Amino acid sequence: MTERTLRGAAAIVGVADIASPTGQLDQRGRALEVAMIRAALDDAGLTLDDVDGVCHAGSPTALAEFLGIQSRYVDGTVVGGSSYELHVEHAAAAIAAGLCEVVVSVYASTPRSDRRRPGGGTFGGGGPGGGRPMGPNPAVEWEIPFGLRMPMGAYALAASRHMAVYGTTAEQLAQIAVDTRAWATMNPNARFQEPITIQDVLDSPMIASPLHLLDCCLVTDGAGAFVMTSAERARDLGRPPVYVLGAATAGSHQMISQMPDLATTAGAVSGPAALRMAGVKTNDVDLLMGYDSFTITALLHLEDLGFCGKGEGGAFVEDGKLGPGGGPLAMNTNGGGLSYTHPGMYGMFLLVEAARQLRGEAGQRQIPRHDVAVAHGSGGVLSTMGTVVLGTEATL
Amino acid sequence: MTARIEPPVSPVSKPFWDASRDQRFVLPWSTASGKAMWYPREVDPQAPDAAIEWREASGDGVVYAASVHHRPGPGRDEADGPYVVALIELAEGVRMMSNVVGCEPYDVAVGMPVRLVWEPLSDGRHLPQFTPA
Prior knowledge:
The structure holds two protein chains of two kinds.
Chain A: E1 10-18, H1 29-44, E2 53-55, H2 60-67, E3 73-75, H3 83-96, E4 102-109, H4 111-116, H5 138-142, H6 152-166, H7 170-184, H8 198-203, E5 206-208, E6 211-212, E7 222-230, H9 231-234, E8 242-251, H10 267-278, E9 287-290, H11 295-304, H12 313-317, E10 330-331, H13 336-340, H14 347-358, E11 372-379, E12 384-391
Parallel strand pairs in A: 2-3, 2-4, 9-10, 9-11
Antiparallel strand pairs in A: 1-7, 1-8, 4-7, 5-6, 8-12, 11-12
Helix pairs in contact in A: 7-11, 10-11
Chain B: H1 14-21, E1 26-30, E2 35-36, E3 52-56, E4 60-69, E5 83-90, E6 95-100, E7 113-120, E8 126-132
Antiparallel strand pairs in B: 1-2, 1-3, 4-5, 4-7, 5-6, 7-8
């Protein structure tokens, strides 16, 4: 295997996202996607005519048709919340190989508003296992009949295992929610902006033990997009390029009952691989945007990417060093899926916030040192991990 | 009262469900690897030509992970109270999802030995459940 094949070859040159303290947005569907794409292109100083590559965790060809783009590159990768980290990896490879030059990826989802619309929403989609050529989805036969509440039940099982094996406590998990909320107080678009305490988390209703309501992410409307191009072209554009230094994917299962070790994710593979490609060590990282569908999810990322040892995540987070004014590493500065927004596949927002922080545009929540950021997405139920290491010009 | 969601019978898993009618607990084994597999698969992907054999299993296991569900999942009713969703490591070396019943939910702990009990389904089949051994 060649190392560092993608390092510095491509850059994120435009980003956009939208969410609201009400949890709801006025636009939806294609209109919302187009608004995000146009905003990200405006940010980059590019137009739709420049775009020759389209990523969409659904149908990239339908989106390209809608936009009137004659595409040379399409990526329909959909693995859940980490789809957008995989889009970055694939787009960087495609750009490096000369398959295309300007790639957009977009996500828009409005589950909160859709619930209130006549006819209901599409959240969760279709009937169980319906229409699969291979017979029913195994989860319908071997998980659903046991009343597994998705997705929190799956993460609760992982948390129970981590607690039993490593002695992780509910208070330590709660600290992640507390720190993430502290960051959200500085994001005017965050769904929740009032500080919380560990006791607030422990006093919130138990959903699926050991996870309380405040250990769980939100259900909100939200949307975002990014634009990528070659490093060469990026230097001529309006914003400081955010270079892709490393990227890697690793998957371990689809259903939680098939996860090899519930206390270790495939991030233990994708994380070190992406960091190695980037030539970056964990103590070089200023910002971890680590997918926080639940507090346990973020804790597993810290261990599996090597920010602390396996089983040491609880002790690592408990002094609040990942919150504002904490240590040299900041985590989830936009307020995360726990307090900012979580429309279903949150990975897009990891990339947008990482880019804004690296460009020094994060306003009140701007971190002082901002050269290297890691956006680490988790898709499915801790199933498919996508790690992207991003850096400023200074890191090349 | 929410109706329980009963598992469909996939073609590959029919031997499991047929045996469950007689409360016999069987697992599929790959004759190539000599190991049990779970969930049932059409073939052993490492040896697609090898036969899959259904063998009687002990029904003994250990709790690998467990969550007390306070908000009900599909097919469950809040009025029935919290219940335990667990992953059970079977003595035969495979892990399956199930429920732990017959004890207080918070008495279920990771590492606890459990044994199989059957819950009747509406069509004569039985659903595997576990109870403290």
